[in-house]
Amino acid sequence: MANLASTRTAxxxxxxxxxxxxxxxxxxxxxxxAFACGAVSAGVSLSDHWGLVLAGMALSGPLVCGTSQAVxxxxxxxxxxxNEPARPIPSGRIPGRWGLxxxxxxxxxxxxxxxxxxxxxxxxxxxxxxxxxxxxxxPLRLKLNGWWGNAAVGLCYEGLPWFTGAAVLLAAxxxxxxxxxxxxxxxxxxxxxxxxxxxxxxxxxxxxxxxLPVQLGVQGAARTACAVMVLPQVAVIALxxxxxxxxxxxxxxxxxxxxxxxxxRFLEQPIRRALWYSGFGVPLYVSGMMVSxxxxxxxx
Length: 300
Fold this sequence. Notes:
Blueprint: H1 2-12, H2 16-23, H3 29-41, H4 50-75, H5 77-83, H6 98-116, H7 119-136, H8 146-170, H9 176-195, H10 201-207, H11 212-242, H12 246-268, H13 270-280, H14 282-295
């Protein structure tokens, strides 16, 4: 009887490995990279503020991004039970309402860390948390529409961490060049998010998720995704030239040129090559982010 009671208690608690899987470490890199771009763009010595940088990267990745993953899995648990039953919540490795509890606790912890980093960072984190819940939770559930959902993810994965990275080191609202670049790269990230939707067209159609491939068709969504990725980078290149940074602008232009060659191949078979482009084209996009961050250090 004692062994049975012990077994039931163990089964009623989430498995540590399942909690880590719920927070999806693989998704932490984009916001952490964007935070690093923001820190670089601030023009402050990173070696003198390494503690703030590490805390900020933890906030952007494991905390805020991890929260968004937990929230998403909780509100998608019924769909995942059909499509991906091995996930932590539908598989029972995170039983009962523990998934919701983890999402709430991680939200509070994220805001506490943000508050310790300063008021600007705190309010930025509040916005990020609001978007994370609005993306997955009813009644808004922004993810049901590809235009709104991808915009929310792009902003929270690229623009908001960039802004936060600069705000942490400056202890103030960053200057307009930082904000403009962060917004432009957020806009481009909308197209990157669309790449993830090509693998789920059939399921999204059945579940009423109006992703861009569902709304615009495969070719229409592919062309839109490419245009949304390209145009902000063109704007960044123009700005860098106008700001007297021709070498940085030329590097971003070269990275964009390679992307254009790859996009042409992607457009030939969007469904088949969306994952391929995500793996090889997107790193060129985010490399341009860091190049741009170094270019504007002199503004601060």
